[in-house]
Amino acid sequence: QPPGVPEICKKSLNSCPVDGGLELFIIGKNFLKDTHVVFQETYDSVNADDPATELVGRQQLIAGTSALWEQSVLPDKEYLHQ
Question: How far apart (Å, rounded) are the C-alpha atoms in residues 59 and 65?
Fold first, then answer.
């Protein structure tokens, strides 16, 4: 039977500092072996009252993306069970 759509049931963090240093645990189902996790900060999630941030946000929107930054990572395979 083919797997369904990946679904996150629980996660240990909702947000964290941009420089990292924390572990994120995700509990879910239907994750494939080549699953990767994408971390990003969107223009909507930052303080739009900051002129520098607003300028970057506008540039990103013009470029067709709402992400100020984005990083993709692979989960530890020892914790990824089928």
Answer: 9
Helical residues (DSSP H) of 1-82, grouped into ranges = 51-62
29 and 6 in contact (C-beta within 8 Å)? yes
Model confidence pLDDT, tens digit, residues 4-15: 888 899 999 988
Polymer length of the chain: 82
- The pTM of this model reads 0.60
Tracing tokens 């239907």 back to the chain, one arrives at: 30
- Of 13, 6, 73, whose CA–CA distance to 39 is shortest? 73
- Residues 36-62 have pLDDT tens digits of 888 887 766 655 566 665 665 566 555
Alpha-carbon distance 32 to 20, whole Å? 25
